[in-house]
Write a structure and sequence with these properties.
Rossmann fold, 2 domains, 307 residues
Length: 307
Amino acid sequence: MVSATEQGDRLDDRSDSFVRDVNDSVGVKAAGQSNHHQPVFLCIVGGGKMGGALAGGMLKSGVVPPEHLVIVESTPDRREELAALLPAGVSIVGNIASLGDPVDGVILAVKPGDVESACRDIAALDRLPSRVLSIAAGITIDRLQSLLGTGIPIIRSMPNTPALIGAGVSALAPSSSCVEEDILWAEQILGAVGVTVRLGEEYLDAVTGLSGSGPAYIFLVAEALIEGGVSVGIDRSTAEILTSNTILGAARLWVETGEDPAALRAQVTSPGGTTEAGLAVLEEREVRLAFQDAVRSATSRSHELGK
């Protein structure tokens, strides 16, 4: 059985691998810290796993060239990791005050508890950024505007963890001061690590309950299917391969055919067959309602945390 710590380490390794692939795509061997002599178009405040994944995705897709990207990361060890993962030209600094050039846009990718100090440092810059994209969980646009000033266009979003491998989905909500150009800017950034949708901020708690927490629901399903396979005599390693590829294949079939999931389910379910027998148990145990309740409960909790 793989422990939670081992699973987390594997995800960290895969996210760093996704970032490392950038070196190949831009044709350089290694990254390093550099003094930028051209205008910095984009600054990521917070170089953790999500901030690093966004950097890697944008560089790989050409959203921003290395010379126009700076990452602010306070932890020395993580700065060294980023320097080894990202291409030469990307500037990696320890604090916002170290920014030597004006910044056009900022991605706020710090933990919620660090948002206030980060915003305070941003507000102290000689020239404020043109726009801010926040992926800090639970921090509302009103709160960000109170810290940064009401004149700065702010887009709030929350990518889910598959963004770490470039397969995420993000809903984004713009402030009233945003124009279409600001929203397109945010979509270009988040689109580098997955799919984006536009929604009003009032729906972001629901998005958190569905797609934000959703990967955990799917992983729980995976755990249950693996255990089910083991219980009928399949060795665990084989059960993991069968389960992971079943989930991956089913998702691809749905996305690539565009068919309604109910129709796809019906195609697998022959009257009196094995699938019908299995689904009957799930319906009897009200698994469908349990998932609906899970989304509602997570949505409610997200709302509480945002107060």
